Amino acid sequence: MKSIELLQGTFASRLQLQLAPELRAGFPSPAEEYLHESLDFNRDLVKHPESTFYGRVKGDSMIGAGINDGDIAVIDRSREPHDGSIVVAYVNNEFTIKFLDLSHRNDGYIQLRPANEAYPTIRISPDDDFEVWGVVIYTIHNHEL
Questions:
Q1: 39 contacts: CB under 8 Å, gap ≥ 6
Q2: Which CATH superfamily is domain 4-11+49-140 in?
């Protein structure tokens, strides 16, 4: 079930990159002659630095959600998960990344749903050692593997 490897550390150092003009996925727009803004991962992706971590995804159970083996997940432990959140969960001594399904809460259990039909849904009952460790707020995907 292990599908995410948590990496130590938080986003601590400042890294500013040039932000390209709006990138259209349809017809191309005329190119800008210069770049206007900068992108700073700390400012733009991390709202709670003291509770934000990153993890490298292992496996393909979330491929249908666009989360692939080797991707980096940005995880905020201060965010309150809701039904449908992509979460990093700690289940019976293992970490996993899945959709949180709270629709059966009144029936006495919740579920962790993969985004790949080849994997089963994980049913969490009160007897399980379970914690929502954090909410995935971004993923970074390498397109040049």
A1: 16, 17, 18, 19
A2: Umud Fragment, subunit A (2.10.109.10)
